[in-house]
Design a protein that fits this description.
Elements: E1 12-23, E2 27-38, H1 43-54, E3 73-76, E4 79-82, H2 88-95, E5 99-103, E6 110-112, E7 115-116, H3 119-127, H4 136-139, H5 149-156, H6 166-169, H7 172-176, H8 183-193, H9 201-212, H10 220-224, H11 231-239, H12 250-269, H13 274-297, H14 300-303, H15 313-325
Parallel strand pairs: 1-5
Antiparallel strand pairs: 1-2, 3-4, 3-5, 6-7
Helix pairs in contact: 3-8, 8-9, 8-11, 9-11, 12-13, 12-15
């Protein structure tokens, strides 16, 4: 007797999978496949069935099928996802269509079909020295490094990165600034920067802090991370180490000016005074140069708006002081 509950009944539907194929010889083209899936079918299983039952020439990466290895990162219906963590029927219900598109991750050079070249990604990850450098006494067996629960709670979340590359594929700063290490590298780098057992703190600050100020805070890495690591949080936390840095780069100095100007204008008026923030961040010469562009584009009127302080500035001061103390 078939179960009546929809939660138990094995629902099946036919889907159309449109794969953005690529080969160095032929270039790129779209190819469609049809198959029937049920409520348990992961997108990695969809790809496996296409390759074994319909088209052995299709190339993709997958390994653990448990969202642990990070191999199966790709764009599914236009969004960076892990194929193993994505159910076919869930996509159909969410998008209201039985058509599912699969594309390789953006920014990475394509090798074949859904397979991309991750060499540059790995180089960025290795650049942050993703391992603990203990003291000589520990290496010699004369001492132990102990991690207190408070430090463990700070580090554990950021140690869960599986190097899938989804955050990097969605990051506009990686595309626009070759000096930006990328959100994944920052998540891994901060995990060791904040580890009290590590002994190369100064070297890590030189590697990470300048790059952290190149992030634009678009939060795309936050949205696509399959492990809820919040790479952008590690970038914010890394910026807080700027005060400990001895030789600051121009990028770091500009970033600190920007942050201080924002805080000062909010304290004084309760609002973000963008014209003043820009002037204090980049200086008069740069501001005058950009002012000419604003005049030509008709945007100068926004810079001349006279802002009136809001009520309750004392409450804003209390909130900001509380945040600084934390």
């Amino acid at each position: 007797m078939e179960p009546k509950s929809s939660a138990i009944r094995n629902e099946e539907k036919e889907i159309i999978v449109k794969v953005k194929r690529f080969s160095p010889d032929k270039g790129e083209w779209w190819q469609e496949y049809k198959l029937t899936v049920d409520r348990f079918t992961q997108m990695t299983e969809v790809l496996r069935r296409i390759k074994t039952e319909q088209d052995p020439s299709l190339s993709y990466r997958a390994a653990c099928h448990m969202a642990v290895c990070g191999s199966c990162g790709m764009k599914i219906n236009g969004a960076p996802m892990l194929a193993c963590k994505t159910l076919a029927l869930q996509l159909i219900n969410e998008y209201g269509s039985n058509v599912i598109t699969l594309e390789p991750m953006e920014w990475f050079p394509r090798v074949k079909d859904l397979v991309v070249d991750l060499d540059d990604f790995y180089q960025r990850m290795y650049k942050v020295k993703p391992r603990l450098y203990p003291s000589k006494e520990v290496l010699d067996g004369k001492a132990e490094h102990r991690l207190v629960p408070e430090d463990q709670r700070e580090l554990w979340k950021f140690a869960q990165c599986i190097w899938c590359g989804l955050c990097v594929s969605s990051c506009p700063s990686v595309r626009n600034d070759p000096e930006f290490l990328g959100p994944a590298a920052h998540a891994k780098g901060y995990r060791f920067l904040a580890d009290p057992r590590d002994t190369i703190t100064e070297e890590r600050m030189k590697i990470l802090i300048d790059s952290s100020w190149r992030c634009t805070y678009c939060y795309q890495c936050f949205n696509v991370c399959p492990r809820d690591i919040e790479p952008v949080t590690t970038i914010k936390k890394t910026r807080a180490w700027s005060s400990k840095m001895k030789d600051k780069t121009k990028v770091v100095e500009t970033g600190e000016k920007h942050v201080n100007a924002i805080a000062d204008t909010i304290r004084r008026s309760g609002k973000l005074l963008e014209a003043e923030v820009y002037l204090r961040t980049y200086g008069l010469v740069q501001a005058m140069t950009d002012m000419l562009f604003m005049i030509k584009s008709g945007r100068m009127k926004y810079a001349l708006i006279k802002e009136v302080p809001i009520k309750g500035l004392n409450d804003i001061e209390k909130i900001m002081t509380l945040g600084e103390n934390e």
